[in-house]
Structures are given as C-alpha cells and as structure tokens.
Amino acid sequence: MNVPPRVTDRAYARLAEINAEAQPPKALRVAVEGGGCSGFQYDIRLDEPADDDIVLEKDGQKVLIDEISLPFLADATIDFTEELIGARFVIENPNASSSCGCGTSFAM
C-alpha cells in the first residue's frame, strides 16, 4: 500500500496565502511525469480536483495527488521554502535515488 505524502504546515500556510487572493480558490496539484535531466520530474501547479485524485486537506486547503503519481510520492514530504534564490514548493522524496541540482528532477 502506498502511503500518501505528508504536507507541512508551512506548505498549507503558503497555499492559504495564495488562495486568499484567488477566486475561486485552487488546490495545489503535485504530480510526477517522465522527463527532466534525471528521468522523472515534478509538476506542481494550481488546479481543480479530478474524480480520481487523492485529496490531502487541512483548514480548507487542498493538495491533490493523482493515482499514477502516488507510488512515486509515497512517504514524501511536500514543503514550502524561502531562500535567497527564491521561494517555492519542494518535495523531499525518500524514494528518489538521485536528483538534479535544481531539485525538480529525480531518478528512482
């Protein structure tokens, strides 16, 4: 059985900030696609829920994972980080055997 990823309070808080100005509010979709310099890449975007999505929710904020991406994201952590180079949602994925320098591409 695939354990859904964990979403940090910081990621939910940032999504709430984004949605404070969005009408209607959107969910954060985290998906895995083939491609990137390491074999797989994350697709993180605002989206509407689909019927077969796994929905992780806290305080009305929703994170969506499609069934195909779930095995790649099992036990991962979805977080939000702010650094000198910018702010972004990040994935800490224990299933990745390697990743590229930018953190958006990984291998399994």
TrEMBL record:
GO function terms (MF aspect): 2 iron, 2 sulfur cluster binding; 4 iron, 4 sulfur cluster binding; iron ion binding
Alphabetical list of InterPro entries matching this protein: ATAP, ATAP_core_dom, FeS_cluster_insertion_CS, HesB-like_dom_sf
Stretches assigned to the Core domain: 7-103
Top-rank taxon, per record: Bacteria
PANTHER family noted in UniProt: IRON-SULFUR CLUSTER ASSEMBLY 2 HOMOLOG, MITOCHONDRIAL
GO biological process terms held by the UniProt record: iron-sulfur cluster assembly
Protein name per its UniProtKB record: Iron-sulfur cluster assembly accessory protein
Organism listed in the record: Tranquillimonas rosea
